[in-house]
């Protein structure tokens, strides 16, 4: 027993020496001497709450009327005090200063704390803190870590909600569905940290821990009210939600019921500790289980967002057509037309394709139009239509094996398919006329000069039987005869100067020389 008392006295003496050394350094080296002195005195090693005058001096230094540089320096000094200490009393007193500042100072201090956490290491990260100076210090250290987690979650909740639940009016009753689904989980996470602050072991009887716990318990009332009002608002909107929102809302509602049960137990513990605020704790009532079952049934049958207001394109086209017919003015009834005979489906398909495809090359001309063009030609003698046998032999485009291109090609007549009188086609008749013109030109011109033969040789006219003798007895067309007469007159007008067409037409005359 005496050994334990001597160790306690030694720790107190060492703590007093550390505090005095830190005060002397603050008075000599600091630019904010008064602020540093108040911070050291408010967070000394004495296991008692800090004096109120030191607390008020710190709160005045971080108020909204002070420059932002002073506020930033105060936050930096508190963070340095937390990071360097290994004593539970110093750490807990520093956290109490921050907690009271969040409650009693204007919201600008919370914004400065958030900005400090973004630019440097987090101020409230005490996950590795421990004080192993005594067995009781282990329990104290554990509660200090949970208290730091609560303060860290309080800042995060302020960042999500954009207002302080403890000091401002609750707004969860008037929120829309997206904001509810975002803010209620943050409030429930904060309430989860509240429930984690339940003291264990030696921490239950510590006076400084009870002081901090009383502030946590008082804030839990406002947090639960915010969750309760938000849950009522969520229930009002639940049966109008889509399935993915309804699933989130159902999880929030279930968690709210579980936390309400644990919060009732937490309040009972606080009342047993005789904190002096037991009368302010509210009574927690559990929601009926039948309502939870109704919500679960709704989630199973709730519509999905991807399947709402979607109809097939065919149905939309038909409805659009019906609306157009309704909006069109009424026309007088016409006389009933006779019903046409039903055509095969393949014929309807071909007709639809022909109408949809523009005929740019004129391939859809019928046989009758081609016949009319041929009748206007002076060279055509007679037009004989195709026989029934050839039409039957022509490939059908409606049997399903050929497309509409083959049907268009087979319907277009060619030169060889047009038969003339005597069993001849147009190509054979044209070749006979060309040969007749060539023969008549050779008969009328008896001889001509051959420049590639022997010197002075003439090309003799062709002798012997003419294979086209029968065709030369027929008179040539008038335009061919006129062309032949013009060629003969041109040849007669050309002068004859010997047998050499390349010779000098003016012979040598020595007299002129």
UniProtKB/TrEMBL annotation:
Region (Disordered): 321-345
One of the record's GO molecular function terms: SNARE binding
Signal sequence range: none
Protein's UniProt keywords contain Membrane: yes
Keywords: Coated pit, Cytoplasmic vesicle, Endocytosis, Golgi apparatus, Membrane
Statement: the UniProt record of this protein carries the keyword Zinc: no
Pfam families from the UniProt entry: ANTH
GO cellular component, one term: clathrin-coated vesicle
UniProt xrefs under SMART domains: ENTH
GO biological process annotation, one example: clathrin coat assembly
Domain of life: Eukaryota
Cellular localization per UniProt: Cytoplasmic vesicle, Clathrin-coated vesicle; Golgi apparatus; Membrane, Clathrin-coated pit
Stretches assigned to the ENTH domain: 27-165
Protein name stated in the entry: ENTH domain-containing protein
Native species: Lactuca virosa
